Amino acid sequence: MTEVFAGSFTAQEGIPEEGIAAAVALMRSGRLHRYTPPEDGGPDPVSAFESAFARFTGARHAVALSSGGAAMRLALMACGAGPGVPVLANAFTLAPVPGAIAALGARPVFVETDPDLTIAFDDLAAKTAASGARLLLLSHMRGHLADMDRLMALARDLGLTVIEDCAHTMGADWRGVPSGRHGAIACYSTQSYKHINSGEGGIATTDDDDLAARLILLSGSYMLYARHTAAPPPAAFAGLQLDVPNVSSRMDALRAAILSAQLPLLPDRVRRWNALYGVVEAGLRACPQIETIPRPQGEGFVGSSIQFRLPGRDPASIERFLARCLARGVELKWFGCDAPQGFTSRVDHWRFADPPPLPRTEGALATLIDMRLSLTFSARDAAQIARIVADEAARDGAAPPVARAAD
What we know:
By secondary structure, this protein is α/β, with parallel strands linked by helices. It has two domains: 249 residues, Aspartate Aminotransferase, domain 2, CATH 3.40.640.10; 128 residues, Aspartate Aminotransferase, domain 1 (Alpha-Beta Complex). 35% of the residues lie in helices and 14% in strands. α2 packs parallel to α8 and α3 packs across α4. The protein starts with 16 loop residues before the first helix and ends in a 14-residue tail after the last helix.
């Protein structure tokens, strides 16, 4: 009998009871704006979340915002991006990354992608020299971390300021250093499919007093920056108040309360995601028609999604494979698809960014399949999903043998 998976790839874990209680109390009070003083006189829920997140990541400052995209836009503005300014970005990313650049009138400069799905260092150096860019918006796309020691050394040599897009790496690390702690600013997302969930939301962290002050003023502090508990001293704001625009991107108290209850759960979520990832990866690696993506030893990743390739397949074959998997309850995305689908798109779909041909990235994504792993899955679910995918991958006949890279 043909197996069919009965679970949901879009299901979320519920909000912890502590977060629900805090949210209900806030709704009853009506004190949802981040600058409405709490009844008890303590820090407002947004400031409390910012302080907790700063401690969690080891950053000096944190600013809670309305979305991950808002965090990237404000980070770019704080670092001097504006009309006509070139901003480097890896070509394997999602639409909000070039969108954040284009929203400022800045010019995205796309950097090629290596087969391991990380930024190509040689092309980064070449594009920096050709464009004169001084900013790199580095996307840790789908949780794949580049060698951050090498990258930051190269960035220093090239004179680049690095902003990290950590939407998929909250809780990850490179050789023990938390993701987001390498660049000048880190940008995180709390959208529903990220590692803590407020529907929409974001947060930016930095150790730099000037950048933190700019982020806070940009977010829309209305000169109430003294109420931020993860902020630099008042002197950092001197001379900026009348020059930095208010672009109203604050997080509200309701979302902050929901997130504060989830943040302590993140280490356990990482452990559970990685256990599911291990089960699925083992099942896929056993199939000769599937090529998994090697993870470097220095990477402490969060397995909230998994990517693999179907080498040697043409588009029609991949479309049939996807349809058969979906008929058996397994929802997959394909980064080589000609048209954007749902949350998945690729560089040539972003005409607003005027991308050039990027043959290495195109090759890396041509047969790349993407699967979200939900924490509502059990280990048994993960094993069944892997069996279904492997079974369907084998149905079109054997692909050429895959030379698997060493882990």
